[in-house]
Amino acid sequence: MVRIPVEGKKKEFKDGKKRISIAMQGGGAHGAYTWGVLDRLLQEKDLIIEGVSGTSAGAMNAVAVAQGIITGGNEGARELMKTYWEKNAEGGKASIFKPGVLDVLMGKYTMHNSPGFLFFDFLSKILSPYQMNPLGTNPLKDLVEEMFDFDVLNGSDLVKVFLAATHVYTGKLKVFSNVDKELCTEAMLATACLPTLFAAVMVKGEYYWDGGFIGNPVIYPLIYDCETPDIMLIKLNPTHRNRLPMTASEIGDRLNEITNNTSIMREMRSMHFITKLIDEKIVEPGKLKRCFVHMIEDEAVFYDLGWSSKLNTDMEFLKHLFDAGRKSADKWIEKNWDKIGKETTAPVAEEFV
Q1: Fewer CB under 10 Å: which end of the chain, C or N?
Q2: 84: how many CB neighbours lie within 10 A of its CB?
Q3: Which helix (H) or strand (E) holds 257?
Q4: Sign of the CA dihedral 85, 20, 302, 191?
Q5: What is the C-alpha to C-alpha distance for residues 290 and 309, in angstroms, rounded to an integer?
Q6: Is 282's pLDDT higher than 50?
Q7: Are 328 and 297 spatial neighbours (Cβ–Cβ below 8 Å)?
Q8: Per DSSP, what are the bridge partners of residue 165?
């Protein structure tokens, strides 16, 4: 395992390339925004992605990027992500999770008025996945097995991959990584296992749920196991709201956002604290790794989207989010490209402290 390189002794990159590691939040269909961000970043020929960390949909994007780069470079990663999301949309055509007539008429992508979603939402409050789905079928399994080659992923260190899951019995974080040769179908299903939708996933005799409860996404492996000091967060869940949630769905949606942001809040506060210790020379120079934090987000894109829209895999919606992600990445590149490797560009104190 690569430990934290001391400041002042970290490897100098002299090939003119920009190196970053990327952390990707989970969020179901909202992960198509991350797809768009990554698609735009990967068009930069001088950009090297050293490591990726993801949870749930973020994990799917992370593995697609890593495998694509390993087998076909940046263009290979763009193509693999595109295929993954297109197949996701194709598989979702038979789903009961579709926007209702009122949702469509209002020009929204939510499913607050979807008969299929409302019926499922009601059932999920009184029946567990073990009762509703006793055979334990998971439609994501076939897609994961079709799309990803874990021999390739575990056999390469070109892009380091870290996927977060929650250990059911202890509540502790579990990180599956190709550094430890742990990536497999079950690990990917575990990181995306919402306990109201699916039965817990067993990996090597242990049960896991979605990583979003405790690591959405997990940052620290990108600090310890990657040499680049630059870490980019692609953020999906809004941090700020300017009105009080009043309806049951609004309260549920806000609780979902807060819960899914808790872990990243904690890690960002820690990184901010360590940076202050370095800047104020409270710690001996060279003892702690200085990281440069970057972030791409657009809260306006998700402001009117609730939890229900995370289950909406209609291609029109996914393309809407993809385009928004590309636009956000374009703006970030124009403003911050020259700052990679030199300074933090994310408003860490304002956003997380």
Answers
A1: N
A2: 22
A3: helix 248-279
A4: positive
A5: 38
A6: yes
A7: yes
A8: 174, 210
Which DSSP category does 38 fall into?
H
Amino acid at 330: D
Q: Enumerate residues 6+ apart whose C-beta is below 8 A from 41.
A: 22, 47, 49, 329, 333
**How far apart, in Å, are the Cα atoms of 339 and each of 18, 145, 182, 246, 286?**
10, 39, 34, 42, 22
Q: How far is CA 178 from CA 205, 275, 293, in A?
A: 19, 29, 24
The answer to whether residues 6 and 287 touch, using CB atoms and an 8 Å cutoff, is yes
What are the start-end ranges of the E strands in 179-322?
Answer: 201-203, 206-210, 230-234, 292-296
Distance (Å, whole) CA 211 – CA 194: 9
Helix (H) or strand (E) holding 124: helix 115-124
Report CA-CA distances (Å) from 338 to 16, 54, 223, 298. Answer: 11, 26, 21, 21
Residues, the chain, total?
353
Cα–Cα distance for residue pair 188/201, rounded to 1 Å: 10
pTM (predicted TM-score)? 0.91
β-bridge pairing 173-177 and 47-54: unpaired
Q: How far is CA 65 from CA 79, 84, 131, 146, 186, in A?
A: 9, 11, 36, 16, 19
Predicted confidence (pLDDT) per residue in 294-352, tens digit: 999 999 999 888 888 898 999 999 999 999 999 999 999 999 999 999 999 999 988 88
Predicted confidence band of residue 8 (pLDDT cuts 50, 70, 90): very low
Average pLDDT over residues 125-149: 91
Predicted confidence (pLDDT) per residue in 68-111, tens digit: 999 999 999 999 999 999 999 998 877 777 777 677 666 678 87
